[in-house]
């Protein structure tokens, strides 16, 4: 075999990252290489710059694109179709299948050593394998384990216990609304974030997709998803959950003014709250996500993703090394964590001091312990071949339900119909 | 050397102009064929030089894409495996049948239909009213300020307009909701019909444009006519209703057609509002559906939606112009 | 002119209300641009002017390596150059259509008019595929070139020339032996004067506001016009809620020059209108 790719020599690389790997099927370049890398969000540009400063022979050009489900993925698809795809693109875990199903992604597992590969947390490794054991169609950079972030001060003040089941959550919501009629326990994020809803449904053992021979089985409206929808519908109807557009200034304002007391969200949500409601510092805390059954140990994921190497890349070897560095370098982590609250997916980085400090914003709590435990019990969930489409179908159906004042679970039926027909329009064989 | 004017255009009557057609011209009667054909050749060369740059661009960037879209709309995707790439297959008008039967397309047509009846009509009406009010005393400072104020939002891109109004709609960030609450008025713009939430933004942006159209129409009205009406004792209102309005008919038609085209092609305002609102689906208008389908790589289906939309727009616009114009088209 | 006392207060009230409706949102924008994000979510009133405008602007200009300044320049490029070229091209065609009779003239005009009815979606995507075949997507050309073509401008030009450039003048020029194109450039264009400005302004605004074409064509944020850039940021509140302030300040900065330009040039397009440039 050819000599191994020169590995990522980050300024203070861990021993894992500095091991060289045998190139599995890619040939490293002997001349300087330029790579193009597309992503959204702050921090990536700076991280790429850092890599460039220590890798004169592998220079990475970063391009900022819109958020994936809001046009970023479409740009990538358009580019592949037009033959101008980047070498590396950031894909959220739920969208890897979309590109993989078109055979657009390279399996980079051959570029890494076993030690490097086993450093990644198990559920995340599974998420990037697309059903092929050991394959890696993405190098995971950040995970999205979910927990419940809540206003500890308000809970204490009004004698409300932190809910451990969704039944308790619903009851708590009623108490919150009673204590302050202009406030709610939580906001229903599903109108604009179907992946949030998918995460919560998956916690209830929902399975939206499964491969079946040459085709797909679709069940967006399975009973677990409907039960999840019903729960939130009850709260919306009772006025104990709000329906603001998540992340909008109106939503930020509600958080800042204490009109939303809790948020079932992923680890990166902690950073969002700090940005949206800076004045509420010290008043929040993090608890595990409520579960459906008493005493269950299962959480959910929302977001998270990694860097994928496109098959059309002329330098997959170097691209894979860059991706690995982004995922495993403590220096990259420092930048990304500070910029967008990236929560790593390797055991080594999860032990970084960044995640073992008490957080004053959360009253001194070691919040990452909660998220770490959550990341170990995220449910298995198969993503479909066109999640952007699927999400659109779900959010459109929810939106229509809101306008028509019909139920969210009925909307899931509408979404199911749309998803099935979209996939058929795409040429897939679909069963329900 | 005297040349006969052999190839000048007939002066055209602009739609709704109050002026007369102008004197007739000698045409093509120059004695001596050689001089005439030389003139004609020179003129033809001029015409070519003047028109080719635009026509070249027009052919490249208007005609070619339409032809491409039409061609593309005759294909559809077929796939041979769960993780295999898809391929285009000729299906004739199959896409069009699917589009017409698509509940999303039907709903989007309903949405723009409601929009046409509601906000779009109001835009024209409001433009008319404001233009008439300003025209009643066109030279006062108030009128000048009013013109500037009404037209200022036109310079605001729809994306920005939607962002601003997104803030102004939400109770937690809207000064108007807060102010209304102070006088005991519980207003919640987010509970208005979505058509109006979107429509208000376009109304705010485009009324100025309509005022412009009407203002120019009003400016071409013979002042003598108005003066004699006043001398006869007609009130401002009466003048507006009986004299100005009828003469504004062509302007109104123009305004309605422009608004109709804009309504049928609605895209930017709802798209921009989506980041701040939960009430707008990703396929709320036909254009959004076309974009959404293209975003899902269903280019052929998207092309069919766009073509259908273009056809509907063209049919409605021509029908309107036909039915409403009295004088020949320019 | 006799005054009509009864109509006056009604007129005035209507006008004041209307002006408030149109102007207050812009006033709100200006006031909000003076607040930090924290202040904004707490109090987004119309009269609570804060004192962070300059620091907000500094943040805005520094964000993402100064990309906002780039966006402004891009918008000026696309709209300024696009409208300039487009106006000249349209005026040329309008002149030919107005002053010359040639076979197919009316058919040509109708075909061009039909172009006004084509929705951007019908064009933007096929344009993208066409441009990608020659590798020109994600370039300045990909937005500039299609923007230059404006059938509406041709319509406005034709109507304006009909009214502003008398046939006698063109005849006289040809009698004097001047070539057609020279006549157009040296006589026709100057006579169009205010009409030209009107057409330029309308096309400028159309390109400035065009959203779908850049949305589809452009990947690199340093090619974005300011509309697309701000929209992009609006979709990133999830990443950084303080972007809301930058979006608002950026919106203000993007909007003020265009409004100012319009108001200053009001003189021109008012004359252009009465000249019949937008003939009703």
Structural commentary:
The complex is a heterotrimer of chains A (432), B (330) and C (280). Chain A is α/β, with parallel strands linked by helices and 432 residues long. Helices cover 41% and strands 13% of the residues of chain A. Chain A contains 18 helices and 13 strands. Chain A has helices at 15-18, 44-54, 72-82, 96-100, 114-118, 122-127, 152-157, 166-179, 194-203, 223-238, 249-256, 269-276, 316-328, 330-340, 347-350, 367-376, 387-404, 408-425, and strands at residues 33-39, 58-64, 88-92, 139-142, 146-151, 186-187, 209-212, 215-218, 241-242, 262-266, 284-287, 305-309, 430-431. In chain A, a hairpin with a 2-residue loop joins strand 7 and strand 8. Chain B has 2 domains: 39-90; 103-325, MetI-like (MetI-like fold). Chain B has 13 helices and 2 strands. Chain B has helices spanning 33-72, 94-101, 103-136, 141-151, 158-169, 175-182, 194-219, 223-231, 236-247, 249-264, 268-273, 286-295, 299-324, and strands spanning 75-79, 86-90. In chain B, strands 1-2 form a two-stranded antiparallel ribbon. With 280 residues, chain C is an all-alpha fold. Chain C has a single domain (59-279), classed as MetI-like (MetI-like fold, Orthogonal Bundle), CATH 1.10.3720.10. In chain C, 76% of the residues lie in helices and 0% in strands. Chain C has 13 helices and no strands. Chain C is globular, with a radius of gyration of 23 Å. The two termini of chain C are 26 Å apart. The A-C interface holds A 38, 40-42, 45, 63-67, 70-71, 75, 78-79, 81-84, 246-249, 252-253, 256-257, 272, 275-279, 340 and C 37-38, 40-42, 44, 64-65, 67, 128-129, 132-133, 135, 137-138, 215-216, 219-221, 232, 235-242, 244.
Beta strands of chain A, count? 13
Helical stretch tally of chain C? 13
CATH architecture of chain C: Orthogonal Bundle
Helix content of chain C: over 70%
**Structural class label of chain A:** alpha/beta
Oligomeric grouping of the chains? heterotrimer
Query: In total, how many domains does the architecture of chain A comprise?
Result: 2
Q: What is the top-level CATH class of the largest domain in chain A? A: Alpha Beta
Describe the largest sheet of chain A: 5 strands, mixed
Tally of extended strands of chain C? 0
How far is the first residue's CA from the last residue's CA of chain C? Answer: 26 Å
CATH superfamily descriptor of chain C = MetI-like
Instruction: Indicate the CATH architecture of the largest domain in chain A.
Output: 3-Layer(aba) Sandwich
Tell me, briefly, the overall form of chain C: globular
Please give the most extensive interface between any two protein chains, plus how many residues each contributes.
Answer: B-C, 121 and 107 residues
Which ranges of chain C are low-confidence, i.e. pLDDT below 50, for 5 or more consecutive residues?
A: 1-6, 276-280
Structural class of chain C: mainly alpha
């Amino acid at each position: 075999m050819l000599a191994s790719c020169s590995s990522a020599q980050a300024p203070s690389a861990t021993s894992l990252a500095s091991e060289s790997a045998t190139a599995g099927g890619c040939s490293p370049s002997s001349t300087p290489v330029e790579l193009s890398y597309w992503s959204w969000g702050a921090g990536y540009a700076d991280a790429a710059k850092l890599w460039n400063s220590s890798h004169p022979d592998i220079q990475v050009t970063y391009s900022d694109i819109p958020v994936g489900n809001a046009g970023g993925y479409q740009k990538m698809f358009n580019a592949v179709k037009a033959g101008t795809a980047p070498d590396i693109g950031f894909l959220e875990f739920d969208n890897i299948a979309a590109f993989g199903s078109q055979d657009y992604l390279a399996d980079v597992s051959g570029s890494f050593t076993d030690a490097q590969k086993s450093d990644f947390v198990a559920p995340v490794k599974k998420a990037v394998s697309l059903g092929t054991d050991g394959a890696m169609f993405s190098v995971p950079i950040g995970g999205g384990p979910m927990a419940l972030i809540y206003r500890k001060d308000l809970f204490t003040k009004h004698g409300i216990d932190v809910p451990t089941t969704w039944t308790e959550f619903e009851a708590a919501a009623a108490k919150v609304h009673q204590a302050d009629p202009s406030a709610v326990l939580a906001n229903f994020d599903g109108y604009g974030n179907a992946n949030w809803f998918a995460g919560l449904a998956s916690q209830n053992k929902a399975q939206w997709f499964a491969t079946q021979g040459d085709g797909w089985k679709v069940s967006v409206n399975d009973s677990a998803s409907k039960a999840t929808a019903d729960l939130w519908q009850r709260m919306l109807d009772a006025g104990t959950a709000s329906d603001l557009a998540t992340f909008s200034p109106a939503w930020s304002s509600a958080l800042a003014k204490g009109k939303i007391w809790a948020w079932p969200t992923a680890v990166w949500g902690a950073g969002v709250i700090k940005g949206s409601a800076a004045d509420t510092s010290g008043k929040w805390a993090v608890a595990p996500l409520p579960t459906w059954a008493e005493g269950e140990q299962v959480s959910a994921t929302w977001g998270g993703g990694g860097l994928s190497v496109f098959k059309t890349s002329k330098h997959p070897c170097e691209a894979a090394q860059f991706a690995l560095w982004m995922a495993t370098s403590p220096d990259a982590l420092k930048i990304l964590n500070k910029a967008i609250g990236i929560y790593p997916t390797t055991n080594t980085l999860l032990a970084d001091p960044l995640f073992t400090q008490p957080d004053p914003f959360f009253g001194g709590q070691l919040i990452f312990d909660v998220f770490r435990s959550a990341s170990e019990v995220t449910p298995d969930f198969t993503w479909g071949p066109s999640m952007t489409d699927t999400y659109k179908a779900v959010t459109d159906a929810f939106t229509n339900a809101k306008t028509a004042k019909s139920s969210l679970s009925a909307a899931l039926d509408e979404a199911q119909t749309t998803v099935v027909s979209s996939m058929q329009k795409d040429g897939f064989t679909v069963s329900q | 050397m005297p040349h006969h004017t052999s190839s000048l255009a007939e002066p055209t009557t602009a739609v709704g102009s109050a002026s007369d057609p102008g004197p007739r011209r000698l045409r093509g009667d120059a004695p001596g064929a050689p001089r005439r054909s030389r003139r004609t050749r020179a003129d033809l060369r001029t015409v070519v030089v003047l028109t080719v740059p635009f026509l070249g661009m027009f052919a490249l960037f208007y005609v070619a894409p339409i032809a491409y879209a039409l061609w593309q709309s005759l294909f559809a995707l077929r796939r041979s495996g769960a993780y295999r790439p898809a391929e285009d297959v000729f299906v004739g008008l199959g896409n069009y049948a699917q589009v017409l039967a698509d509940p999303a397309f039907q709903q989007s047509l309903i949405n723009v239909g409601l929009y046409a009846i509601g906000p779009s009509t109001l835009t024209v009406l409001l433009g008319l009213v404001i233009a008439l009010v300003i025209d009643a005393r066109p030279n006062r400072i108030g009128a000048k300020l009013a013109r500037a104020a009404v037209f200022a939002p036109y310079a605001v891109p729809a994306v920005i307009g939607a962002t601003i109004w997104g803030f102004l709609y939400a109770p937690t960030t809207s000064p108007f909701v807060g102010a209304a609450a102070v006088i005991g008025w519980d207003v919640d713009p987010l509970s208005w019909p979505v058509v109006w939430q979107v429509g208000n933004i376009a109304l705010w942006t485009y009324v100025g444009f309509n005022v412009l159209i009407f203002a120019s129409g009003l400016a071409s009205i013979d002042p003598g006519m108005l003066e004699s009406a006043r001398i006869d004792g007609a009130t401002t209102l009466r003048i507006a209703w009986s004299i100005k309005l009828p003469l504004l008919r062509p302007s109104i038609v123009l305004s309605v057609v422009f608004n109709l085209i804009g309504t049928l092609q609605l895209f930017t305002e709802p798209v921009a509002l989506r980041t701040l609102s939960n009430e707008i689906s990703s396929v709320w208008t036909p254009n959004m559906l076309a974009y959404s389908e293209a975003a899902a790589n269903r280019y052929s289906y998207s092309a069919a939606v766009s073509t259908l939309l273009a056809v509907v727009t063209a049919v409605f616009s021509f029908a309107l112009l036909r039915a409403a114009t009295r004088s020949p088209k320019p | 002119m006799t005054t009509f006392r009864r109509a006056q207060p009604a007129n005035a009230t209507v006008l004041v209300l209307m002006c408030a409706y149109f102007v207050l949102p812009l006033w709100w924008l200006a006031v909000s641009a003076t607040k930090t994000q924290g202040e904004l979510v707490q109090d987004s009133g119309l009269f609570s002017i804060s004192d962070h405008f300059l620091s907000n602007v500094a943040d805005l200009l520094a964000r993402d390596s100064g990309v906002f300044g780039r966006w402004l320049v891009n918008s000026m490029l696309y709209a300024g150059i696009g409208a300039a070229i487009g106006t000249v091209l349209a005026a040329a065609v309008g002149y030919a259509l107005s002053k010359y009779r040639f076979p197919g003239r009316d058919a040509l005009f109708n075909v061009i008019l039909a172009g006004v009815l084509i929705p951007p979606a019908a064009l933007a995507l096929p344009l993208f595929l066409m441009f990608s075949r020659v590798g020109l997507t994600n370039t300045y050309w990909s937005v500039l070139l299609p923007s230059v073509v404006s059938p509406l401008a041709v319509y406005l030009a034709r109507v304006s020339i009909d009214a502003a450039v008398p046939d006698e003048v063109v005849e006289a020029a040809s009698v004097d032996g001047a070539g057609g194109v020279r006549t157009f450039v040296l006589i026709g264009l100057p006579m169009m004067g205010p009409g030209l400005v009107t057409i330029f302004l309308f096309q400028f605004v159309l390109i400035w506001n065009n959203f779908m074409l850049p949305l589809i064509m452009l990947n690199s944020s340093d090619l974005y016009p300011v509309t697309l850039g701000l929209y992009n940021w609006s979709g990133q509140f999830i990443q950084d809620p303080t972007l809301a302030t930058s979006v608002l300040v950026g919106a203000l900065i993007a909007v003020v020059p265009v409004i100012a330009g319009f108001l200053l040039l009001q003189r021109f397009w008012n004359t252009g209108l009465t000249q019949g440039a937008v003939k009703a």
